Amino acid sequence: MKRPWLVYGLAFIGGLVVFLIFLSFLLSFLMFFKEKDFGKPQIGILQIKGVILDAEEYLMAIKEMAKNRGIKAVVVRIDSPGGSVGASQEIFEELKKTRVKKPVIVSMGSVAASGGLYVALGGTKIFASPGTVTGSIGVVLEIPNIEKFLKKIGVETETIKSGTYKDTGSIYRPLTPKEKEYLTEKVKLIHDQFIKAISEERKIPLEKVREFADGRIFTGEEALSLGLVDKLGNFWDAVEEAKKMANISEAKLVFVPKKKSFLSKLLEEKSSSILEALFLKPWYITTN
């Protein structure tokens, strides 16, 4: 005996399943386009937080934003006490390259001192809040000495080296007077690089910069009066300035790179800290 209702029922269910699958694909497609905002101008947001240990991730993000035609301007949000000299200089140089192609607006957060200030110099314009802590223009080179501790636990070390200064900064002995003089000279050279960068980028006479480049910190208001920043304002003021300089009225904010998980950041910071402790390295960092 034929059961047409069963055939019709199965056909209806099959059709409903196909329709739901099609609807799911359609919604996903629409959500994809909504998320991308194709055709809508974008502003790239680069967040630099914490101690600047390595520049690689930031450099890749800056390059990505520089070549992306949809990104009309870049806002760099800095909340950092500084970091290693090399990393700070690398980010600064890459921002300088990018500002030739599109506006780069820097927004200083709570702290943008030492290496954080160095990075900020790469922007087209710099914003700071009145109470932002910046400045701390100087170099720190700290060398631990565990010689006495090792002697207490009965450990002795011997060093075979190829040159007079090859083991300068060894944690197993104090510095000799000649080594201290040698390292002081290097610190001065690196400090001069910082002073020169400020003078050139902020159009402040070199001797004027030397007067306040002694490691002291400044508030955002003081930095404005010294010519270290262009305007007082928050992150959204910087975004508005970016839109204005890019000649756009609306823009989608694109955060590059994407935020990492707490565990990833923790593991990265801990491993970096251990590695940094093993090598002699000068820092553009505030210790105030």
Describe this protein with a few key phrases.
single chain; 288 residues; alpha/beta; 2-enoyl-CoA Hydratase, Chain A, domain 1; two-stranded antiparallel ribbon; ATP-dependent peptidase activity
3D structure, described in words:
With 288 residues, the protein is of the alpha/beta class. It has a domain at 40-139 and 212-285: 2-enoyl-CoA Hydratase, Chain A, domain 1 (Alpha-Beta Complex). Helices cover 48% and strands 17% of the residues. The protein contains ten helices and ten strands. It has helices spanning 4-36, 56-67, 85-99, 115-120, 147-152, 177-202, 206-212, 220-226, 235-245, 262-277; strands at 42-49, 71-80, 82-84, 104-113, 125-128, 133-135, 217-218, 231-232, 252-255, 283-285. Strands 1, 2, 4, 5, 6, 7, 8 and 9 form an eight-stranded mixed sheet that branches. A two-stranded antiparallel sheet has the order 3-10. Helix 2 (56-67) runs parallel beside helix 3 (85-99) and helix 6 (177-202) crosses helix 7 (206-212). The longest helix has 33 residues, at 4-36. It starts with a helix and ends with a strand.
